[in-house]
Design a protein that fits this description.
By secondary structure, this protein is mainly beta. A hairpin with a 2-residue loop joins strand 38 and strand 39. Helix 5 runs antiparallel to helix 6. The longest helix has 24 residues.
């Protein structure tokens, strides 16, 4: 923690105490001990019915526009991890990969700030918390703030998500609770354990009341995904050198013209085991009724064992002897001009494939202390925390290729993507599989952060302004990432794959379920053999590179690779890393107002938050082959006003109107000032590559994404657990950040392709969301146990493409935004039986915009609509023991995307098949 940060907080503390002390003296005679009443977001819930009531209370009583989900029992959110649960909140969607929810989007936008117990929390070098790293057993509830108030940590454009754990004063006395569970994945065909255990107790002592809580959680998941794909690069038989017919791919089918087809097709399988342990604990001490002091800590971790298999067929490259492939049996799509439906390829480049193995891990720690002191009319609170998070990965990949080019029969769109076969090629014969190369990578990224805040809430004598709030907050963040890697390309030696130290080959297992893909399996070295023989493979790579240097003495790339493989440790690569140091200082002033307007009670908040951000972002660029350090500095001040009014029309109806301004900082990696350019090698026959080099890096010129936000809600609370609401919102935004790939003519390299983040232009997003939840208590007998919860969100959003892309700021749909998203859940709870059937769906959305060399403008890649159905049921065996069963992803619908290559035509891209989970567990509480 820097001296500047300490000084900032100390000055604010003194000012707060000077304000608080007179208020305390004024009301000392009237001060009475507070009765202990749980706040809305501290409700201990025990069932679906109580959970709905708790959610309604949070939404109804909040100063902000907020939606939430809470656990229906201690230590038990209704899903495997916190990211799965939040997908059920109105206006929230999640991106899924490898059988789990990952990134979250609120109202279609990914720019979400995240907190843990209302303090900043992050994973590794990121700015936000990865909710998939949180086993559900850690969480008591999750709140999604869709409009901010000045006292909240700055929300992102999409809002703020707070994950809340339990504290010992939430529970009346001693309690032991938890769950043990086993699950089965029908695609990986593996059984996995999971469980959580919560222990908490409160004591009355001579020095006051003390409470302690500790929670243990562990989840293991084994997954197996299968993906068949077609390339995003759509090409034609006519070569890129339009004046040279010798560059054209021969086509023997007459009359088909210069048709279009993807440049590659293949299979990609990923299999892995994830271990996610977590421990969190809290001690609370209440020495007097007006003072509470606490300390809490959290450790959450991830351990992964990953294996990736890929098989790729290229349809344009020349063979090692320089001969182009030949295309025959061409069939065009009826009614679509010049679009290939199927064809046969002979000759050309051989198919390539690899098996990548990876062990990776994350460890995140946070420790915090804080207090809350009520003295007369003033309430002073503070929270101070340190966070450390580190992710690291070690990858070893063995690459291979077929000995000869088989005949490839391909169909470009069968049930969502390309399928192909290799004719009668003997894929099971080890003599047909050659070693192509060996890749190693050591990657580490980490972040550290200090944070502190002080808040003063002062009650006043002013009827229409009952509270004035003031607070300060300071943070110090460091972030770094380093990616060291090396690759030995050994295809020119013609070594058989089974001659490597990894020994005998195995036929890989696919992850398809009744898929039409005709080619699914090939040979590879066993995963454990690759991990166990990494040093032997490194030595073999070094010896092979020595031979290649003698064969190709003028190839600088081979010599560079030889140097990298000379040592057991991968050499440090200054071009593949960055570091950042950033401080922020914030202060806010907010008033809570309340008055009567013609019989309508009106209350709300009016405030402003001022934030100064000061950061230095460092990386290395390659200049004449040498590393040159580049530092970029940003220092800016944001003034973020907020205004929210609530109109109470009787005891059941209320309306909110809100205006806020938000900003979202770019990620640390996005601000990396380095640009790393990697030169491409010529083809096997010496022909020049399409791109002389590829470049990637960050963009130190990025500006924060800013937005002016307008919100309105109408809410109806017709019973303790029944409510309905409708909300409309509009966002005026500027500077949405996405990665774009573009072609550049470089004076040194020639044509290169660069991928880096850019600020988009001005944009807007507007939408409406509606929700309803209730139990049907009016029904007779056992039918009164039924209930339902439903929500729907409509979104419409666009922004201008970056001017740097050269398209005149063309307006396009925002990436990641689905026009429609909805959730429908049915409940039953009666006579010890609880059941939930939950369906959610989001409409198609754009994942990215890119352009290949032969295209006239940037085209969108879209993901098709995604649906999911989950079921859970439980039965109370005794008052303290409950049997629980769950089925996740009942529909088993595949992920499917596609890419336009002109205004009206597209090819499918990926079709990914994921697994279903079945689990059975026992929940206990005593």
């Amino acid at each position: 923690m820097t001296e500047k940060m300490i000084g900032f907080l100390a000055t604010a503390s003194l000012a707060a105490l000077m304000i608080a002390t007179p208020a305390a003296a004024q009301d000392a005679a009237d001060t009475k001990p507070e009765t202990e009443e749980p706040a809305a977001n501290d409700i201990v819930v025990t069932g679906y019915r109580a959970a709905l009531g708790s959610v309604a209370a949070i939404k109804r009583n909040s100063d902000s526009i907020v939606d939430a989900i809470v656990s229906e029992d201690i230590g038990k959110l209704p899903d495997n991890n916190a990211a799965e649960s939040i997908a059920r909140v109105t206006g929230v969607t999640v991106l899924r990969y490898n059988d789990e929810a990952g990134d979250i989007l609120v109202r279609g936008l990914p720019d979400v700030s995240t907190t843990f117990n209302s303090r900043e929390f992050f994973t590794a070098d990121d700015r936000k918390l990865h909710l998939q790293d949180f086993p559900a057993g850690v969480a008591a509830g999750i709140e999604v703030y869709k409009s901010g108030t000045a006292d909240l940590i700055e929300p992102g454009l999409a809002g703020l998500v707070n994950l809340r754990s339990r504290r010992p004063f939430d529970v009346k006395d001693t309690q032991i609770a938890g769950e043990i569970r086993g699950s089965y994945n029908d695609q990986s065909q593996a059984f996995d354990p999971a469980g959580n255990l919560l222990l908490t107790k409160r004591w009355e002592t001579p020095v006051g009341e003390i409470g302690a809580l500790i929670n243990f959680s562990y989840v293991r998941t084994t997954y197996r995904n299968a993906d068949r794909y077609a390339d995003s690069a759509v090409i034609s038989p006519q070569g890129f050198n339009t004046g040279d017919s010798g560059d054209d791919i021969p086509v023997t089918t007459p009359g088909v013209g210069n048709f279009r087809f993807p440049a590659n097709a293949g299979n990609f399988y990923e299999k892995g085991v994830r271990h996610r342990p977590a421990i969190n604990g809290t001690i609370q001490w209440r020495p007097t009724p007006d003072l509470e002091i606490y300390a809490e800590g959290l450790w959450q971790a991830y351990r992964g064992d990953v294996m990736r298999d890929a098989f790729n067929v290229n349809f344009e490259r020349r063979s090692a002897s320089g001969v182009l492939p030949t295309i025959s049996n061409v069939v065009l799509v009826p009614g679509e001009p010049l679009k290939a439906q199927s064809f046969t390829k002979t000759g050309g480049y051989v198919p390539e494939f690899f098996r990548s193995t990876q062990d990776d891990s994350t460890d995140t720690y946070q420790g915090a202390v804080g207090f809350k002191w009520k003295t007369g009319r003033a309430t002073l609170s503070g929270d101070f925390a340190y966070t450390h998070s580190k992710y690291q990965a070690r990858e070893d990949s063995v690459d291979a290729q077929l000995a000869t080019a088989p005949t490839i029969n391909v169909d470009w769109d069968v049930r969502g993507s390309a399928i192909f076969d290799l004719g009668g090629y003997d894929i099971a014969n080890p003599a047909n599989t050659l070693w192509r190369g060996y890749y190693q990578r050591d990657f580490v990224t980490k972040g550290d952060g200090y944070q502190g805040r002080l808040d003063l809430d002062l009650e006043t004598d002013i009827d229409w302004l009952p509270n004035i709030q003031f607070g300060v907050r300071a943070t110090d963040r460091t972030s770094m990432a380093q990616n060291n890697n090396r690759y030995a390309y050994t295809a020119g030696l013609g070594l058989r794959l089974d001659s490597l130290p990894t020994g005998a080959l195995e036929m890989i297992t696919d992850g398809y379920r009744g898929d039409p893909q005709r080619f699914q399996n090939w040979l590879a070295a066993p995963r454990q053999s690759i991990r166990d023989n990494a040093e032997a493979l490194r030595q073999l790579s070094y010896a092979s590179l020595q031979q290649l240097v003698m064969l190709f003495p003028n190839d600088g790339g081979i010599r560079e690779a030889l140097g990298k493989f000379a040592t057991a440790e991968i050499p440090f690569d200054p071009f593949n890393g960055f570091s950042a140091k950033e401080s922020s200082y914030a202060a806010y002033l907010q008033g809570k107002y309340a008055f009567d307007l013609g019989g309508v009670q009106v209350d709300g908040t009016l405030g402003v938050r001022v934030v100064n951000t000061d950061g230095v972002y460092s990386g290395y660029s390659r200049v004449d082959g040498q590393p040159v350090k580049r530092d970029a500095r940003q220092n800016y001040v944001d003034i973020l006003p907020s205004f929210l009014s609530r109109f109470r029309f009787g005891s059941q109806w209320q309306m909110r109107l809100a205006f806020t301004e938000t900003r979202t900082r770019p990620g640390f990696g996005q601000l990396n000032p380095s640009l790393n350019i990697t030169r491409n090698s010529p083809g096997p026959d010496g022909s020049p590559p399409l791109y002389a080099a590829f470049g990637s890096g960050g963009n130190p010129e990025l500006k924060p994404l800013t937005s002016k936000n307008y919100d309105a809600t109408l809410e109806y609370y017709f019973s303790k657990n029944g409510s309905a609401s409708i909300a409309a919102f509009y966002r005026d935004l500027d500077g949405f950040i996405s990665n774009y790939t573009r072609d550049v003519i470089d004076p040194v390299y020639g044509r290169i392709q660069i991928n880096r983040p850019e600020n988009a232009g001005k944009g807007r997003i507007k939408g409406v969301e509606a929700s309803v939840q209730t139990f049907f208590d009016f029904l007779p007998g056992w039918l009164s146990g039924f209930g339902a919860q439903a929500n729907v969100t409509y979104l419409d959003g666009t922004n201008a493409l970056p001017l740097a892309l050269g398209e005149g700021a063309r307006q396009v749909k925002l990436t990641g935004l689905s026009t429609w998203a909805y959730n429908l859940t049915g409940f039953y709870e009666k006579h010890g039986i609880s059941a939930r059937l939950s369906y959610n769906r989001r409409s198609e959305f754009v994942t990215s915009y890119n352009r290949t060399t032969n295209e006239v403008q940037y085209a969108g890649e879209l993901t098709r609509p995604i649906s999911r159905l989950d079921f859970s049921v439980s039965y109370d065996l005794t008052p303290g023991f409950t049997l629980v069963g769950n089925v996740s992803n009942l529909l088993g619908e595949p992920f499917n995307n596609y890419r336009y290559y002109n205004e009206s035509q597209y090819f499918p891209r990926d079709l990914r098949v994921e697994g279903r989970y079945f689990s059975l567990g026992l929940r206990f509480k005593m």
